[in-house]
Amino acid sequence: MLFQYRLILKETIFGKTKFTKLTFRLCYRTHLESMSHTLGKTISYEEMMTDADVERSVLQSLITHGLKEGLEKFEVPQAVTLIPDVWTPESGLITAAFKVKRKVIQNVYQKAIDRMYA
Fold first, then answer.
1. Number of domains composing the chain
2. What is the pLDDT of residues 11-48, one digit of tens each?
3. Which residue, 30, 89, 103, 112, could crosslink 81 as a Cys pair with Cβ 3.0–4.6 Å?
C-alpha cells in the first residue's frame, strides 16, 4: 500500500516550491460514500467531489496514512482535489504506458492547482 501511495503522489504532484505537495485524487466511489456517511452527509457522488468536508476528510486520511507508513512530512500532500475523471490513454491525460502527461494535466486542471495554492 505504501508503494502505491507513493506512486500516486509521485505521479500527480504539482508544486511551485519543493515544500508544498499537491495531489489530485480519484477515489473509489464506495470509499467516498462511506466517508460521506461518516460525516453525516447524504449527497451524490458528484457533490462529494466538491464538498469541502469530504475533501478535508480525504486529505486527512492521506496525511494519516502517509505518516503512519513512514513518509516524511515533506512527502505528504498539503492539499487535495477530488476528481471524478478516470485518467486513461483515451482521455489524453496519460500515455499508453500509463505515464502522466503533466503539461496536459496542468492545462486541464490549472484552476484546481491555483485553488490548492491559495
1. 1
2. 344 444 333 455 556 567 788 888 899 999 999 988 98
3. 112
